[in-house]
Amino acid sequence: MIKTRILFIVPARLGDALMITPALALLKKHHPEYMIDVLAFGRLGASVYQDNPNSQYCFLIEEIESLNEFLQNYVFIVAAHRDKKTLGLLERLNKPVVLIEPADQQQQQAQQALNFIQNLFTEDNANPAQPIPYQVFANHADETYAQTLINPQKSYIGLHLGCHGINKAKSWLSWRAKIEHKKTWQVRQFVELAQLLKGHYPEHQVVLTGGENEQQLAQEFLKTYPDALNCVGKTSVQQLAVLMRYFSLYICGDTGSMHLACTGNTPLIALFGPTNSIRTGPYPPAPFRRVIQADIMQKISANDVLEVAKELLNS
Question: What secondary structure, in 3-state letters, does 110-159 show?
């Protein structure tokens, strides 16, 4: 029997790519007969789908010479995430596209993608889809490597100092210009929090996570708080997901690693400024996933975060 071949479009950013992994899982669950390939805008988004059993092959748009010729292999295309890059791509294609509706700002992005798949590809199109956690699939090598970065017998609290807007910067000047990004807390505030946490939980060591271009943030943090373990730029998506399993708590802003933390059961505090926490907050909701929000990130105090951290660490 010839299988129906479907192409699933994946956005470039880590968080956006993670937020549609439940949609892919739901599509494959209801249509195991589909042969689904992934077409990704960038290597980071593509890396989320490494070893994902719900898809077969993962292709990068930048590596395809003739896109429309490539698409002749597929019956139709599924786009469960809608942004300018996706819309621009779809205008160039000559294949049928199943495109998600515009963003509903009162609905979590992953849930909207799930509902989109359920409405179109299942018989139950009258009810919201049941939540499915984000998915990444680490292998034995990822697990072994993560254990070389920490001592599994010790206790850790993870901190992510930056965000996508800082990590994509490639020079010191551009980093300096973006260090007060609306999605990030100031380094001095993270240092103050680390000092407070050490006073209450001296058995926990702080671990810094982030991408290669966030190394400057880590170095600034370490000048004042040298006891932290610096894992910035040292992990893949899958390796970081494994590393997070050893954290008693993870604290970060509205960034990709926040969504990655939601692939497991690590207690999480997500710090939000003016961005919409309903739309891009932790998913699925859980008592151990907490959001602290202010109109300006810097209005969130270290003591505000400490109080929530104490609730999670003491529960």
Answer: HHHHHHHHHHHHCCCCCCCCCCCCCCCCCCHHHHHHHHHHCCCCCEEEEE
What's the one-letter identity of residue 15? G
Q: Which domains occur in the chain, in start order?
A: 5-121 (3.40.50.2000), 140-314 (3.40.50.2000)
Is the CB of residue 279 less than 8 Å from the CB of residue 108? yes
**Per-residue pLDDT reduced to its tens digit, 10-57:** 999 999 999 999 999 999 999 999 999 999 999 999 999 999 999 999
Please name every residue paired with 76 in a beta bridge, in sequence order, or none if there are none: 6
pLDDT, one tens digit per residue, over 129-142 is 999 999 999 999 99
Closest CA to 80 of 124, 24, 15, 39: 24
Which pair of tokens denotes residue 133?
């956690």
Confidence tier at 198 by pLDDT (50, 70, 90): very high
90-96-97-98 Cα dihedral, nearest 10 degrees: 170
Distance of CA 187 to the CA centre of its chain: 21
Report the C-alpha gap between 309 and 295 in whole angstroms: 21
Instruction: List C-alpha distances in Å: 269 to 24, 86, 89.
Output: 27, 31, 35
